[in-house]
Amino acid sequence: MTIIESEVKVNKPVSEVFAFLSNMNNHEKLMPDNIYNWVSTEDEVSFTIQNMAKLAIKISSRVENKELIAIPTEKAPFEIELKWTTEDNGDGTTTAKHILSADLNVMMKMLASGPLQKLVDHQTAQLQAILG
After folding, report:
1. Which contiguous run of DSSP H or E holds residue 107?
2. pLDDT per position as a tens digit, 79-116
3. Which CATH number fits domain 2-131: 3.30.1490.20, 3.30.300.160, 3.30.530.20, 3.40.190.10?
4. What are 10-27's pLDDT values in tens digits?
5. Cα–Cα distance for residue pair 8/73, rounded to 1 Å
């Protein structure tokens, strides 16, 4: 299993950060420009990654103010799990971590790990930019 992660400190309370991440409609604001055909509800989203694949994911687990897990609802090119964890830093700020777990063969790992790392880094940077 390939684990790709990115962490950021957000100047908002954990409840606000978790509420934002808990609504899949908000995730479009975290995506890079190469994402299109975005369709979402609070719990599910589908989109196309330019020159790569179409993905449909849904929230499979929520642990209030701690963890959010999303998994594919349709067959994906490889097994994948998207997880966000939020941790109260005790000073009104939150540490948010985005963890992408993917079952990649050697060839896919060489091709996809760079773009996937860029994606999770972009999403955490956008979260910090939007929420402060």
Report:
1. helix 106-131
2. 889 999 999 999 999 999 999 999 999 998 888 889 88
3. 3.30.530.20
4. 999 999 999 999 999 999
5. 28
Residue 33's Cα: distance from chain center in Å?
15
Q: How far is C-alpha 72 from the chain's CA centre?
A: 12
Other CB atoms within 10 A of residue 65 CB: 18
Q: What pTM, to 2 d.p., does this model score? A: 0.91
Burial of 132 (0-12, 13-18, 19+ CB in 10 A): exposed
Count of CB atoms situated within 10 Å of the CB of 44: 15
Spatial distance between the Cα atoms of 76 and 132, rounded to a whole number of angstroms: 33
Helix (H, G, I), strand (E, B) or coil at 47: strand
Q: What are the strands of the beta sheet with 80-88, ordered from one edge?
A: 2-10, 94-102, 80-88, 67-72, 54-63, 44-49, 35-40
Radius of gyration of the chain (CA): 14
